[in-house]
Amino acid sequence: MKIPKKISPDRIKDAIVEVRYDTQLPYEVAIGMFYQSLDDTYTYTNRPLGQQKFPISLPANLPQEITLSLGTQNIFYNDKIKIQLKSNSIIFSCLKDYISWSDYRPEIEKVLIQISKAKVIEKYNRIGVRYISEYPETDLKRLC
What we know:
By secondary structure, this protein is α+β, with helices and mostly antiparallel strands. Helix content is 19%, strand content 39%. The chain is extended, with a radius of gyration of 20 Å.
């Protein structure tokens, strides 16, 4: 199968950049140190991942299920990008529409420089880039 070098029209909707790193600090401590190192153009939110209900056996006058939180996502964002912090990785994505690599890359570099000052990260060990494109009403098999 021949892989195309460029698809026209270009319909990139998002680009996800994941940077993996090593640290000796617990995740909760690293988040706090990242928070302190980022400039005030970034807003922090701690969004819940969701909840799940589990049935339990208790007397009839008590609740018959328990609700457990599935955790949270620690996210920073500004007017251009979103930064999701996970244990040993930082995931960048565009906040709304794709902003072009010439605008996106400086935002990523700025964040990595700022958080490197926190001395949390011992070393970077992997980077991944994924582009998300949409081609409605297009048979992608015909492009190859």
